Amino acid sequence: RGAVIVLRDVTEQEQEDRARRDFVANVSHEIRTPLTTIKSYIEALEDGAVDSPSHARKFLSVIHTETDRMVRMVSDLLQLSRLDSGRESWKFDPHNLRELVQNACFRFAMQLQRREVSLAFEVPSNLNVNVDADKLDQVFDNLISNAIKYTPDGGRIRVIAYRPSGKFILVQVVDNGIGIPKHDLPQIFNRFYRVDKARSRAAGGTGLGLSIARQIVEVHGGQIQIDSEEGKGTAVSFTLPVGTGGSGA
Ligand code: ADP
């Protein structure tokens, strides 16, 4: 009684404008954060830290790490922009999935040596896919590096692939790490969305890995999803069509 409810019609254009504004705000914030750190360490060096070799080394190493992260973020952003605009070029070729997975796992050998996390793969040798191998490598790199980042020492990561039906192949990257809270799951593929910003940053994350992985999987004609339980672990699963090459992009 007496209450007036005004329903405003939010048009698609308005939603798009808002998404764009949010995105620009996010990018600016994400880039300013490492820049502020870099600047403050340079100032500390100018203020005298440079005279202490041990301090200088430590500060330079922070500057190096933050610069690397910015380079990674800008590369990820450029790639997202190419994917969005359809300017990314694709090269679909037949590949053996087991070989692709094996190579991906080998790329993490050094990193795994420094951590007490095991990485195993279970992929039958007869699974052949028609994919852009460089792009699929990126999907594996993003998913495996997440599994490593968010799995404490003593953890176990598995990359599994099989063919549950005649039509598609299912690939899963499973870890028994920290998991993701239920209420974060619906947003986890959004750009810059992270459960724990500080943890992601400390681990060198950009918050863009999963959204890039999703775009690449979708161009291949597949789907990606994430199942997770806090404290138990995470499984990222994606499909690849059998014997076809991409969705025409
Ligand atoms: P980031 O660079 O922060 O890792 P991603 O887009 O790859 O960005 O992932 C988004 C967020 O999803 C991460 O910040 C993290 O909170 C969560 N996440 C992704 N993979 C895992 C995983 N295997 N275990 C736990 N959390 C994960």
Give structural notes.
The protein contains seven helices and seven strands. It is α+β, with helices and mostly antiparallel strands and 249 residues long. Helix 1 packs antiparallel against helix 2. Adenosine-5'-diphosphate (ADP) binds next to helix 5 and helix 7. Adenosine-5'-diphosphate binds at residues 142, 146-147, 150, 175, 177-180, 188, 193-196, 200, 205-210, 234.
Throw out a few tags for this protein:
disordered C terminus, globular, binds adenosine-5'-diphosphate, 249 residues, 7 helices, five-stranded mixed sheet, alpha+beta, two-stranded antiparallel sheet
Shape: globular
- How much strand content do the residues show? 15-25%
Strand neighbour order, sheet with most strands: 2-4-5-7-6
Work out the helix count: 7
What bound compounds does this protein have?
adenosine-5'-diphosphate
Poorly predicted runs of 5 or more residues? 244-249
The span between the termini is 55 Å
Class by SSE composition: alpha+beta
Strand element count: 7
Mean pLDDT: 91
Question: What does the main sheet amount to?
Answer: 5 strands, mixed
Radius of gyration: 21 Å
Oligomer: single chain
Q: Which percent range fits the helix content?
A: 40-55%
Order of helix and strand elements from N to C terminus:
HHEHHEEHEEHHEE
